[in-house]
Structures are given as C-alpha cells and as structure tokens.
C-alpha cells in the first residue's frame, strides 16, 4: 500500500439562494475541478443549504420557494443536491452549526457503509489522535465566495470560535475573482493564517458575476433573465409571481439575525 | 393610440465555436433594449454560424457548430439558427449575409401582411454583436469601407457591451461610425460575464467542467463527437483569415 490516500470531500454551500443562479451552480463545478486537480481529493457530493426565513435579509422570500427553485436547478446535476434542514429550523442557525449537522450526518451514513474494518489506517489514526469520530479520509468543506471569507472580518457577524471550527476542523473552499485578494485577507488574520492549509482558494479566471441581486432587479423591471438561471427556475418564478418591488422590501427595517444575536454580547 | 413599432429581426454572425449561454443572452438583452425604445417590436432572432472557409484558428466543422446551435436554441421560441452562410462555398461578407436574410424577411413579411396594407411599417434587420465587434472595423483589410457604410448606415447595429464605455469610444474614434451613431444601439449588460467560446474551449481541452456555461445538450454533443481538443485548436493555425485574403485581391 503505497502513496497517499485520497480524501473524499463533500462540499456544502450555505446562503440565501434568492434565487439560485447559474453562478451558484458554477461554484460547485469550479471547486470540484480545483480540488480533484490536486490529486488529493475526490469530491463525492455537493449540498446546497438555503438559509431560513429567520435570517431576515432584505428581500428574502419564503424558504419553501427558495428550496423548490434550488431543487429544480439541481435536477440536471448528478452530484449536487438541495437540503432543507437549515431552512426548516425555527431560528436562524449559525453556519458552524449547519456544518456540524451535515458532518455528523455524513459520518453516520459512512459508518453504516463502512462496517467492521479493524486494520484501516484511518481508524488507527482516529484512536491515536483522539479526534472523536473525525475521519481523515472524509471531509466536509464549506464552499463560498470571497465575500463570505471577507465577512469573517465584519464585527458581530461571526463568532471567532465558529470560524475556528469551520476552518480548523473542516475546511473552506473559496471561489474568488481577479479583483479580490483572499490571500492577503488570510495573511492579515491570525486565525485564518493558522488554518491556511484548510483554506482552498479557487481563482475564477472567467468572471461570471450573476448576482441574485441583479437577477431580482431584472425581474422587477420585466427584463429577461434567460440563460442566467435554469429555465425551470424562471418558469417557477413566473408561475408564482415571485420577486416584485414588494418582495424586495421585506425585512427592510429589520436587523440581520447574526448581527442581532451577537451585537451587545461580550466580544468573543 | 399605441405608437406603431417597426418589426425588427436581429442577426448575429460569428463563429459560435461553440455557442454559449452568453451568445443567447445577447439576444435577450438586445430584445429588451429595443422594446424599451418604444420604436421596435423584435419579431425574430437569427444565429448565422460562419462557414469553414473563414479560416479562423480552432474552428470546428460548420455542421457541428450548426448542430450545437440548434440544440441550444431548441427551447427558444424566437431565435433560430440559419445555415445559409455556413453552406456557401466561400466565406461570405457580413453585408452579403445580411442582404440575403433581409430579402427573405421582406418577402415573408409581404406575404403574411398582404400587399394592400400600406400602413404597416416595413421590417428591419439589424446586426447583433458584442462590444469587441466595433473594434474590428479598425483592422486593416478586414472590412471594405462601402460594406461598413452599408452595415451601419443602411442596416444598423445593436451592440451589447459589458458595462464598459469601450463601444462608445470606438464609435467616437471613427468618423464613419460617428456619422451613423443614430443607427448604432448600445445595450449595456451590467452582469460582468466573461464567458467566451475561447474560454469554454480552453476548459474543455483541460478536462474542466463547462456546465452552466452552455446548455447540457450542447455539452453532451461536444463529448459525443469529441470536439475541442488540443488538435482541434491547432486547426488553421498558420492560415490567414479568409476575409483578409479575399478583400486584398479586390481592386
């Protein structure tokens, strides 16, 4: 048994997906290509986890619609799927908790497949390193854009221990464009720098800047969004009359859930 | 009483090597824009892939490029692909292609509305293009002056750019284009989308994913026929672009 073993990876993307666009789907493709190109990883699954309504972001429409649109968008993918757990929670759930939840689920399902195998190298290492239940050959990584990475720096947006858990215990795959410099951002943060080996920066050479904000704007103005999102998603939006000036005003005067939760709390 | 709108057809000429979502976006953006002027009613769109004799590097056979465009446009109810240009024995000047389609459109239109009805506005055909297209007018030997005049003066351009001011500048820097600027419609695409056929071919050569950049049916076709390899990109590598040769020979 020579050489390195390949780590199986599941990519998890959290976000509003309001609505899901081709750009969101591209992120998964780019991330998979990048990780597998290193020769160290095999990406086996992609999970899209739309945020719950309690996030209170301006213009966020009901989770049931966002879930269904995501399901439609992933229909043509054989490895990316939507998950409703986060959106069904009554309160807003910190990303670290979502990661934790999916990682536990992953381990549990692998456990069932992976029966008794006393000689497995990974199992030996597990016992040695006292990483309870963690496996070296299976990782869950958070997939995001550079804006999420940079949001780590926004006061009261993230708990430090949550960031540490995500990049320390799991991993981050960050899709970036030419105008942002994630390496510099990582360099300037002691916490991120400590776990830099778990942060994978994927450069998107071909900018594909289809923001959901822009899509919603176009829809409000009756402009075409064809070829920016899946046809089935566009059809759903039209059918249900989603995304109007009214829907964009939702939560306009409400504070975003994480800011509400952490502001005033003692700095971590 | 609603103002009468000019029926308008948009024609896009190009390699379509391969056709991408970005190409199809051009039509959508152009249609929205021309409608919003209040003067036009876009009634059709035509994708006209260039013939193999164009001699551009990396150009795969026209029959494939046409087939892929057909697949991509299957779900569109107003844009179609036309293979007339690709089937001509030699490379065809854009203006000649436009004349051919305009005659066709006019004939069809006269047939459908009847010769007695004079109150309807005559249909127009305009060339749909990206911002970089305007810069090609500057390349020596690529365009005949009288063709540029006919293209811009008689037919007209709908030029989609990615939010930058380059197309306005290109018009400003050319006396001919400036003179005809009323017939050059600028459509701004605010979504920065650099998806190009060149990038798509690059990704395919390297075995990288192009999903969500082109329709699944086109990706499948490409894999089925093993188009876009290192070899295909080397085609016509040392050839001179046909227009440069053809037009250099003319008096």
TrEMBL record, chain B:
EC category: transferase
Classification via SUPFAM superfamilies: Nucleotidylyl transferase (SSF52374)
Cofactor section: Mg(2+)
Swiss-Prot/TrEMBL catalytic activity: nicotinate beta-D-ribonucleotide + ATP + H(+) = deamido-NAD(+) + diphosphate; beta-nicotinamide D-ribonucleotide + ATP + H(+) = diphosphate + NAD(+)
A GO cellular component entry from the record: mitochondrial matrix
Domain of life: Eukaryota
InterPro entries: Cyt_trans-like, Euk_NMN_adenylyltrnsfrase, NadD/NMNAT, NMNAT_euk, Rossmann-like_a/b/a_fold
Domain Cytidyltransferase-like: 11-202
Pathway involvement of the protein, from the record: Cofactor biosynthesis; NAD(+) biosynthesis; NAD(+) from nicotinamide D-ribonucleotide: step 1/1; Cofactor biosynthesis; NAD(+) biosynthesis; deamido-NAD(+) from nicotinate D-ribonucleotide: step 1/1
Localization in the cell: Mitochondrion
Main location: mitochondrion
Signal peptide from the UniProt entry: none
Name of the protein in question: Nicotinamide-nucleotide adenylyltransferase
Species per Swiss-Prot/TrEMBL record: Astatotilapia calliptera (Eastern happy)
